[in-house]
Write a structure and sequence with these properties.
Blueprint lengths: L9 E2 L2 E9 L3 E8 L4 E11 L5 H18 L9 E7 L2 E7 L5 E2 L12 H20 L2 E2 L8 E3 L5 E3 L6 E2 L19 H4 L6 H17 L9 H10 L14 H10 L11 H11 L12 H9 L9 H10 L1 E5 L4 E3 L7 E7 L2 E5 L2 E6 L4 E2 L1 H6 L6 E4 L3 E7 H6 L2 H28 L8
Antiparallel strand pairs: 1-2, 2-3, 3-4, 4-6, 5-6, 7-9, 8-11, 9-10, 12-19, 13-18, 14-17, 14-19, 15-16, 15-18
Length: about 425
Amino acid sequence: MDNTERANMQLGKYHIIRSLGLSPIAHVFLAREPFIDREVALKVSLTTAQDPGEAAAAQRAWFFNDAQTAGALRHPNITTIFDAGIEENRYYIAMEFMPGERSLEDYVSADHLLPLAEVTRVLAQCALALDYAHRHGVIHQNIKPSNVLISELFEIKITDFGGAISKSAPATLAPTAMGSVLYQAPEQFRNDGPSEQTDLFSLGVVAYQLITGKHPFEAPTSDLTRQKILQGRPLPLSDFRGEVPDIYQRIIDKTLARNPANRYKSGADLAGDLSLVFDFLPENPTWVSPQTKFDLVSNLDFFRDFSEEDLWEIVHASEWLTCEPGDTVVAEGEIDASFFVIVEGSVAVKKNTRDILLLHPGACFGEMGLVSGRQRSATVVALMTVTLLKICSPLIERMPMSTQNRFQRSFLLALISRLESATEQLADQPPSHEHT
């Protein structure tokens, strides 16, 4: 049966619900995995395992490389691969699905641009995801708006690693195979070979589009586009958007430098400069830079044994919350697979309106619901202005087992500390006297 007719059909163990989109090599469906009742994005190849010809072989190689390369990466801003295989003679990949997701294609036109603050947050997530991939020996090679998914909460996921090359598992494709000319770096046209800076150049093109609604090397033909990438200079950002701070122009110029040696050395360096942009955006007076968050979190006892790499991932993938005195942070009876670490301030843990425990910076709460999946057993109320780091279970599940073990150890230490505090409170209470 043709891919376009698969709605409400079955492919192996997956029940297909509806179409999500079509690419040159695959049809993507929303599907449900019944054994664990999970919705997935199911990418199904348009070619079969038996289709003849070089084009079909290249598409199969692209498909296999996507599953193999992305499947080895675990990062909050890279689409998680759950499963891959072949069914009914077609290759498929079961991927993480974000409800309400769109791609950055929806935000690169002049009449539908994001606020600069959101653009900056999106780009910083992309830069850190690429930094992670690069540190693990993977170069994406096909960064473009349609390959960056974005949720309703502006969480991004880089997808489609079919054209990626990996140091641990070199791709069988040519370095520029099936990539888009619009987002290729100058060295790709010179056949100099891709590098980490190649991906950053492509992200620079996406950044220019998100800011201006225009392609920096716009031209009527592919040949002219190639010529502009090799020799041209994009128009200043301020020609399209007057409120763009000067620092953004410097960032874009460095990202789009023709010589790779003049670009950012890493995605982390790019993300660091992007964090400075917020200082020049008056619409975000309460924004806290990633570096400030990292500095605050790294000083907490809860994260004492975590690596710097782990902490950066946690900071960028977690929610930073501020609660005012009297605010209820969590309520008894709720079900929520997340927990909180107190960064600043104090909270009271209440049971039946009675204070049973006070928690201070470095303490965590809510982890029992995350571990057990049960309802919240107590209510937590802010005693003063409180800064919290909210960490959801999917983040922990995507992290290496060594990091998950560190979380478990921190949970255990928190539990011991609470038991000691409860014991001291009981010891301080006067003995009760029975009256006859």
